Amino acid sequence: DAMAVLEVATSLDAYNGAAQMYLGTMLLKRGEVVRAKAALETSIQLSPLLAQAHNNLGVAQERIGELDASLQSFEEALRLDPNMSEAFSNKQLLTLRMHASEARAVIDETSMRLQLGTDGPQHRTLVLTIRGLAYMLRNHTKKGVKDLDLARADFSDALEEDPHCTMSRAARAYLGLRARDLAASSADLDVLERDEKHANSTATLELRSMSVRVSMMYAVILRDIGTSLRLNPTFHPLSITSPNVAISQLLDERRLLRAA
């Protein structure tokens, strides 16, 4: 058992920062956030230059509501390793959650990241999705139709990179409903309905119901996408193991529900 090995290793060598980081990461994946946070803090005290430890500490802090500290941890991870994909994506997502007015800055930073081309396909998919959500958020404050077109294009590009990026597909389906493009929305919903492995299959059924009724209750759509994801406790926003699911947190934000 990997956990048992790590616990023995850290008990035998309490000053091994890397071992503390791996222990904290394992605990985080198991949902033991308080213990994970303690182990990651110890790791940073012992080895302050471990960028991954700062990133994972940020994830733990976000899960218990320490958002300002979480943002600082992601920023420190990026200071130590400017090319770290996870820290970059986590910082942008958290910035959108905390400050809707920062959507323009997130658009600029994600655009620059995409131009650099430093990320692999998985993280490029996530960056495209984050930028799409930033366009949606900016649209809610400035009501620019162009932003919705740009958001939809980003979700489509993300799906070109990874057809299994469920949250991009759900967001594109939502935009299709909003634009009354029922054919396109229905095509995305068909894919989502067939993909029972994902936690938002419940939301897919709700999206299908909404499309049939051609309802304007977009707040319900967004709420149910987030609710269905929360039904599966193995997934979590900003998860270091399931980055696509991170998008659910933004889709369920109250600022989006009010705007819708």
From TrEMBL:
InterPro entries recorded for this chain? TPR-like_helical_dom_sf (IPR011990), TPR_rpt (IPR019734), Ycf3 (IPR050498)
| Top-rank taxon, per record | Eukaryota
Q: Is the Repeat keyword given for this protein?
A: yes
In the record for this protein, the TPR repeats are positioned at 51-84
Q: Does the keyword Iron apply?
A: no
Q: Which UniProt keywords apply?
A: Repeat, TPR repeat
What protein name is recorded for this chain?
A: Protein O-GlcNAc transferase
Organism, by scientific name, is Hemiselmis andersenii (Cryptophyte alga)
